[in-house]
Amino acid sequence: MRRFFTSESVTEGHPDKVCDRIADKILDELLKQDEYTRSAVECCAAYDTLFITGEVTSKAVVDYEKTAREAIREIGYNFGGFAYDKCEIISRVHGQSPDIALGVDSSLENKAGGEADDLIGAGDQGMMFGYACHETEELMPLPVMLAHKLAQRLAKVRKDGTLAYLRPDGKTQVTVEYEGNVPVRVSTIVVSTQHDEKVTQECIASDIKKHVVQEVVPSDLLDEHTAYLINPTGRFEIGGPEGDSGLTGRKIVVDTYGGRCAHGGGSFSGKDCTKVDRSATYMARYICKNVAAAGLADVVELQVAYAIGVANPVSVFVDTYGTGKLPDDEIAEIIKKEFDLRPAAIIRTLGLRRPVYERTSAYGHFGREEFPWEKIDRVEDLKKYL
Known about the structure:
By secondary structure, this protein is an alpha+beta fold. It is built from twelve helices and eleven strands. The protein has helices at 15-33, 64-75, 98-105, 108-111, 142-159, 201-216, 240-243, 252-255, 276-294, 328-338, 343-350, 379-383; strands at 2-10, 38-46, 49-57, 88-94, 126-133, 166-179, 182-195, 227-230, 246-247, 299-306, 315-319. The radius of gyration is 22 Å and the shape is flat. 49% of the residues are buried.
């Protein structure tokens, strides 16, 4: 059966990603001074104004406005109403709620005399998902990986001067055609990119196809029927927060698996590692990638659920979509045996008290080898169950 699946990505200059970048840059600056920082920073950007809010409990002293302006400058907004040196910045950040801190400082298990890793309780309730498949060498779905690489390439050719007329805002979208579960061709590519007022639509279309699409998408996935929609409205001069408001955590499907699997709804940026929305989602990806690499399944989706103030997850669920070499419930039991899913253990296993988060804020949190949750180092431990 032939079927089609589409995923999108956005560049670092997209208004939502501007907010994610600022929130994660603030988090990194806090962690550089205090690794035990508690943070849940959020941003909202609109036209010429940035609003920074949220909760921070830390020994660190960080100038939020200065940090935000640095992030905006690095992205490339040195023009217009949202220029890094002109936009208005309003900051309203307070300490973590003592009611939330109760559950994080000492878990339910710790109160009953548990182990050292029982000390930290989950910072909130919720369900988190991980996923891995064999469509790409990164063990990620092909549509979202291509969309991310196109978005990254857009930023590269803008910054290195290859296409100097480009501006920071942009979006990409890729539709892949499958035969059964095997990707066979790219059906449609959509690229919308902000640009200056002097360039023509014809020039943009030609340049993007040559310098972006053909540099990213393997030629054997393209054919004479592949459709290219480049700036389909005809113009894209007004972008970033000037063109549309931005908000932290609004691109969570772009951040994860491009819609391929379930999503718990929690966002990542600005949150420290005691927030299981972030840390447990990273751990779920780490587990799924190792399970797939070990050959226990060709496709694996993992759900882990928590209650606030409780260290151990309340449920662990596995779905291999019929590709498992063992029954799904057996794989779930293997995961519970081989991986410690308590927040303190997750933090230790993945080294999450380090300032690594700003780099995650655009082009996906998964499928990039630079991050510790992308390690494949438990394969031999898992193969013994086959």
